[in-house]
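2024-03-11 09:14:02 DEBUG pipeline.ingest accepted 1 chain
2024-03-11 09:14:02 DEBUG pipeline.ingest length=223
2024-03-11 09:14:03 DEBUG pipeline.predict start
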Amino acid sequence: MTIEEIEILMDKFYDLDEDVDEQVFNALNAHFGNDKNGFIDYINSRPIGQSSHRAILYEHIMNNASGWEEFLYEQIRLIIDAIESGNKDAEDELPSLYYLTNISDLKKSFYTKSIEYLRAKLNSRNNSVRKVALEHLLDLHFESKIDLDYSLRDALQYQLYDKNYNVRLYAYLNLNDFNLVPKNFKLRLMDRIRIKMSADHRSYLKAKKIGHEAARKVMNNEL
């Protein structure tokens, strides 16, 4: 299968009426084989944005990510640096970061470098970058099993007081998941109202429910 044919297949990856996931990954394996550098070159040739297929390509790596640590770190930086530079298309690539950070059993250096980089981004002037930095810092600590030091915990909790409501909401939802919201912390009245009314909050709860249901099925060997 040519790379053009694989790209046509990847266009159907998120189509609910199609079931091409395994076919896409098998085709990528067959096309690139053990040519790691060729696969890296192909990913780097893709534009950053909604039509890049990067999330699919990262997911393919995620399935067997050992040895890809340096590339994964470079891609985290590539996407976030692009957003900070004002690349609006790069914001469409934010969901791809899941496939770069939610991976266990990699070299410790990958986690420490990524955590250090994202920690600095908690102070970014870009609201989207502050949100994504917080989320993926928590993911990386969970996957790496590295203890969360007090200074980083304080930096994460500081986002609860961010000037931007969406960052505060994201901080509260994510920190609450990890039992990291300070006991004496109280949401502002308007923030409590906004959270109840927020589409983001409803989407978050729905995704969390779906995730728990999928985990239950795995545990019960139903998948």
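2024-03-11 09:14:41 DEBUG pipeline.report Confidence is low (pLDDT under 50) at residues 208-212.
2024-03-11 09:14:41 DEBUG pipeline.predict end
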